[in-house]
Amino acid sequence: MTPPSADHGDSPDPASSTDVQIIEGRIEPGAPDWVYVPVEVSSGVREISVRYSYDTPSPPPGRPGNVLDIGIFDERGHDLDATTGFRGWSGGARDSFSISATHATPGYLPGPVNAGIWHVLLGPYTVAPQGLAYRLEVTLHRGTPGRAFVPSHAPRRANGRGRAWYRGDLHLHTVHSDGHWQPEEVVAAARSAGLDFMVSSEHNTPSAAGIWGQHARDDLLIIDGEEVTTRNGHFVAAGLPPGTWIDWRYRALDGVLPRVLDEIHRHDALAIAAHPYCPFVGCAWKFGFEGFDAVEVWNGPWTPDDEVSLRQWDAGLVATGGHWLPAIGSSDSHHDGQTIGLGQTVVLADDLTRDAILAGVRAGRSYVTESSAVELAFTAAGGGRSAGIAERLDVSESDEVRVELAVRGVPGGFVRFVTDEGALAQLALPDSGDGTMSWTTTAAVSKYVRAEVRRMPDVPAPFEPMVAFTNPIFLGALERGRP
What we know:
The protein is mostly beta strands. The chain has 3 domains: about 1-140, Jelly Rolls; about 150-370, TIM Barrel; about 375-483, Immunoglobulin-like. It is about 10% helix and about 40% strand.
């Protein structure tokens, strides 16, 4: 990597309103994940603006081209543990940004522009074999700072129905990261989809938390979060206090993740592994699942990635002999071409509050489906007892267990009951799409039972399209160390 060079142009007149710095540098293949470019900010600056560009030579066949992300840290520092210096991130979503006390480009945090050494953060996502030459244009605007920005945070509760099933999308993006949705559009689309709650999960920045209160509605709970976008996979931190930033500048081998998860859990938030089998650079999951609260099995339209996620999640339900990882579904919507609520997580919660929804997701009291048109009710009964999703039915090995799944809204569908041995029953739904399917087993045969609702494909396919699936009901006597 060639060190950056700066050209301040003519010596600035102290009375002038701006100082423009041109900084150029070069990043070679194999460079570090993060490049920090120092910028000297003098006293009296009210706003800092940054514009960047980089070359995009045609790479050889089969090799990636240049993609360069951008963010910034202020004079307080950029070390991994010095999180107070973070001032914003836009990845590759925009080529410029500005920060002042009064306002900031979405993805960035308004606040004082203090004197000192700031650092523009460059993230070479991919670098062509020819290398990557970049150019920064940093403009420092002098003058009297404007009135300080006053954040407007979303309420921690919305109008609920007491203990009930609530529908939500746990993974959404707006213009505050790489999405095209305006915040008010996301809110309108979420309610149009029949959702009760949503999680704001911008890539690597909490900036949206400062504006959600302007768009909050009594009938939609907005939960703050962040999609933590590392080079070894992404995860959603859901339920963070407004303005809380979670660092992403590490890989699995760095050993940083455990203390990051501790920080998330200190905030009573959830860590949800996102789209673990996504094929894009940096998305494939490398961290393992220890310490996580859930895994996003369904992400957007059902694809082979989701099918693999489902099967791998299912394979771990009894592998540890104790703790199990709940599955959730989200749309990961970035624009109106990606349907909000496809998929969605339906959670049994005590009320429509931030804490109650997070508790339901953490406990696995949920099922995942494609839309609000689909409803499920899943129970198991035997030995004079009954249990629902995420519960254990305390029965002997030989007690007969009757499993029932009530389905609404799936014409042309079928129900599949899946256990630790695999799919043991498959039953067609009535033509109306509404019906109750039942199956009988024992704890000796089935250590858990979960349900899937699918449609037959229109053409031959390696798997049937998913409509909905549940988290499991565990069968067998209660034992120490078992769920």
